[in-house]
Specification:
This protein has 123 residues and is mainly α. The protein has helices at residues 3-28, 41-68, 72-102, 104-122. The protein binds fe (ii) ion (FE2).
């Protein structure tokens, strides 16, 4: 496999991880979540990659409700906060993507442990 193919494959793998993070977020968001990060900073980046998306969606929903209720100021404030959360999400996802590029085994190990520990205790 050539270098160009390997790089392309890594990007596809990283995108797949981000898709899985999104799916994971939707399965965890309804019942609360303790990432149990302890001494593994990779897990912190996995967790924040989807936690920021969750807060973005939450603030977007509050903005929509506020606007529908006639409180444009609250709607505007919540929309701006949702924009901040979106930028945080992109930053943490970029960090975790870089972790996967530089340390795929370590990143995937942390990702796997976070996913399986949390999902198993809830099923
Ligand atoms: Fe945030």
């Amino acid at each position: 496999m050539g270098l160009e193919t390997k790089v392309s494959r890594k990007r596809e793998d990283s995108d797949l991880m981000l898709l899985l993070l999104t799916i994971f977020m939707y399965t965890q968001i309804s019942s609360g979540f303790n990432p149990k990060i302890k001494k593994d900073p990779y897990k912190g980046f996995v967790y924040t990659s989807f936690q920021e998306r969750a807060t973005k969606i939450s603030h977007q929903n509050v903005a929509r409700l506020a606007n529908n209720a006639g409180d444009g100021n609250l709607g505007l404030i919540c929309s701006k906060i949702a924009g901040d959360e979106s930028r945080h999400e992109k930053a943490y996802q970029a960090i975790f993507k870089e972790i996967l590029n530089r340390d795929p085994e370590g990143g995937l190990k942390s990702f796997y442990e976070l996913m399986t520990d949390q999902v198993k205790t809830r099923s």
